Amino acid sequence: MPRPQNATIRPPAERILPTLKLALFVFCLLPFVMLIWQTLDGSIGPNPVQALTHATGDWALRLLLVTLAVTPLRRLTGLAWLVRLRRMLGLFAFFYAALHFTTYLWLDQFFDWEAIVEDIAKRPYITVGFAALVGMIPLAITSTKGWLRRLGKRWKMLHRLIYPIAILGVLHYLWLVKADLLEPGIYAAILAALLLVRLPVARLRERINCWRALTAHR
After folding, report:
1. Structural domain tally of the chain?
2. CA–CA gap between residue 19 and residue 211 (Å, rounded)
């Protein structure tokens, strides 16, 4: 049977994108399911509260860095559809950051608001961690297409907050750890690389090429 003339052929990336999104959703949700399972069967460790707090914080930071890696990866590979996965990654980063803070509020401090306010004010690692979480809230709220249309150019400016948020997240981890700085150091190195690749390298390369062309004619 001949294909109707007005039918459009979806590119391969468009056809597999729903499957990729589903796989990504399962992957991002799996650590949460595993934490629940380990908590219920008692295999999470001798200090469940500490284990939950650290695990949720780790996954929040990991997914935040993966979110930042989408744009450089798209430029490197030319796969434009990677950008369509960024929103889910960012929302899951916020999800784990919110779980991280909720664990601290509920299981660690038992909603002792006086002690919580004192902690946030006096402990630098909690201060920067709380600031990072607060900064993620407007990004999560305005992540929809509707907000993108409403905010226009301001949407992009607002979502540049992800850079200082990521820096605060890494600082939170660095200041929290007192002895073994290897893991937070790795996160810091990855963040530094992701920020460096965002420098206007292309413009610099164009200027170098122009300078070479001018000097070649002398």
Report:
1. 1
2. 47
